[in-house]
Amino acid sequence: MRWSAAHAGPVSLLALFAIVQQGPAPGVFELRLKSFRNNLGQRTTLGKCCSGERPASAGGACAVPCRTRFRVCLKHYQAKIDPSSPCTFGDVITPVLGGNNISLEDTAPVAEDGFTNPMRFHFEFTWPGTFSLIVEAWHDNNSSRGGGETLISRLTMQRWLEVDKNWTPHEHKTEHTVMSLEFRVTCDEHYYGTGCASLCRPRDDRFGHYKCSPEGERVCLSGWKGDYCSEPQCLPGCDEHHGHCNKPNECVCHSGWIGRLCDECRRYPGCQHGTCQKPWDCLCDESWSGLFCNQDLNYCTNHKPCLNGGTCFNTGQGLYTCTCPPGFTGTDCEKQLDDCAHHPCLHGGICKPDNGTGSSRCECPKVMGPFETSATWTTGPAKRRLVPGQRPRVLRVPAKRATRARTARCRSTTAPPRPAPTTRRRRLLSQFLVNATLAISQDLNSRDSIVYLCV
């Protein structure tokens, strides 16, 4: 396509600027020449042949055919079209396309000498819907385009035209010429809507993620939202107040919130047996207390610390006490008492633990003499008692019913016949037995009974 400022009238700098400045634009006005017939080969205005001579007879054909070229001028709407005013939307001057009869129906888009059909007029503004059009046929007297041109025919029109891909046909007739053409207005790529006013350029970058509908509306790609599809769609269910996302299908929690959907509050660091209703809470579970809910208020039930049958009592704040059964001691009743250490044997007796009962027993020393005897004194959980030997007899009397051992009545012990002791030996034996009886009775005086050793 060749653009030219040479035509029958002056072209202003504004029109020239509109012609030269061609670049990305919202839309384009297209005009396609289909055919031109000049049957007589005469000029329109003077009625002469294109060669300058008059025809041989009135209404006769000229001997030499015209060299026909066209000028197309597109401008804003004018109620009265002025062919000499600037072509504000642009103008085109074609090379010589033929003689008297020209048919461009089957012409390729790019023809000889750079001419393109249809001719295109780009506009960098919203299409106003109205326009004025001038199409002129000229005779070129020589091969130069600088001058020597004679007007053959002129078409002028103004009208309303909406953006549409369909062509609008038009035919212009004069006394001896017929010009056939069609035109349309379409939006360039990425422009849509009435007047090509909506720009929608598909993109998938940090400025947006969308494609365009046939109406020019942005259609967000999967995982994006917003007017310009620049906001990622978070993981479905992600709490919009406590989480966000930097890319589709993720859920990044704000401080103090956790969980796949950021809908769980974070407990206070170190909280052991508690929950939260808002971030950094530590609301203690039942039976727990303290800043970190780590103090057990029901320690006895949860831990059962008392051993060996001890009874546990909660004392609060995770504390407890154990009441131990007889024979055991310690914080958790874990220690068995040593009865021999707490109740030692007297008068040379030997204390021996009674395994399994927590008690002990005393083995008393033997009494040497004519009535040889031995006894064992048992202590602990069993009642204290004196087990007699073979010969002495033990009399157990409640303490409140007796005062001194010497007043007790003892029946004599049956013994096998022996030789009668001498008077001196009797006196010594009697004194020993009385002393032993008094010693035993004095030792047990604080208990619930007195034991007498009788002879």
UniProtKB/TrEMBL annotation:
Pfam families: DSL, EGF, EGF_DL_JAG, MNNL. Residues 399-424 are annotated as: Disordered. It is found in: Membrane. Disulfide bonds join 187-196, 200-212, 220-229, 324-333, 345-362. Residues 296-334, 336-376 form the EGF-like domain. One of its GO terms (molecular function) is calcium ion binding. Keywords: Developmental protein, Disulfide bond, EGF-like domain, Glycoprotein, Membrane, Repeat, Signal, Transmembrane, Transmembrane helix. GO terms for cellular component: apical cortex; cell surface; membrane. InterPro entries: DSL, EGF, EGF-like_Ca-bd_dom, NOTCH_homolog, Notch_ligand_N. One of its GO terms (biological process) is second mitotic wave involved in compound eye morphogenesis. Residues 1-22 form the signal peptide. Its main location: membrane. Residues 185-229 form the DSL domain. It is a single-pass type I membrane protein. Residues 399-409 have a biased composition (Basic residues). PROSITE patterns: DSL, EGF_1, EGF_2, EGF_3. Putative Notch ligand involved in the mediation of Notch signaling. PANTHER family: EGF-LIKE DOMAIN-CONTAINING PROTEIN, NOTCH 2. This is Delta-like protein. It comes from Gryllus bimaculatus.
